[in-house]
């Protein structure tokens, strides 16, 4: 960033310190974003296993009661962390919607695999 793209049109002796502070904050933001990506990857590894478990035992992909509990818990956590609870709820809903799509795909794959196996055993007697 240069004085010409700070949006103030001003420049001066403080620029170097401001840019250093901005750089420091951006490094923390990058670390936090990396942690979020790693945590999400771990969460999706768990939910993939849940998806297989559900598909193999004919359980529905979505569990609205569980989601209601998660939302209530996250809203409380968000409030105590001074994060907007509505934002926390939207974020969870966004993630869970993706998980449910994964669960549905896994269930389709399990059914297709079972159909194939049933076809083979019919053909071979
Ligand atoms: O706990 C489950 O039953 C899941 O499938 C996981 C999960 C989640 O991502 O947290 C996803 C879908 C359900 O509606 C509820 C929760």
From TrEMBL:
It is an enzyme of class 5 (isomerase). GO terms for biological process: chorismate metabolic process; salicylic acid biosynthetic process. Keywords: Isomerase. Gene3D superfamilies: Chorismate mutase. Its EC number is 5.4.99.5. Residues 16-107 form the Chorismate mutase domain. GO terms for molecular function: chorismate mutase activity. PANTHER family: CHORISMATE MUTASE. This is Chorismate mutase. The lineage of its organism: Bacteria, Bacillati, Actinomycetota, Actinomycetes, Kitasatosporales.
């Amino acid at each position: 960033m240069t004085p010409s793209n700070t949006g103030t049109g001003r420049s001066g002796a403080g620029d170097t310190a401001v840019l250093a502070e901005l750089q420091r904050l951006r490094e923390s933001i990058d670390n936090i974003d990396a942690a979020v990506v790693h945590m999400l990857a771990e969460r999706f590894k768990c939910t993939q296993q849940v998806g297989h478990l559900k598909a193999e035992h004919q359980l529905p992909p979505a569990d609205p009661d569980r989601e209601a509990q998660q939302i209530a818990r996250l809203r409380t956590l968000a409030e105590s962390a001074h994060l907007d609870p509505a934002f926390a709820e939207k974020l969870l809903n966004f993630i869970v919607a993706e998980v449910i799509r994964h669960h549905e795909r896994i269930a389709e794959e399990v059914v297709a695999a079972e159909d194939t196996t049933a076809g083979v055993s019919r053909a071979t007697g």
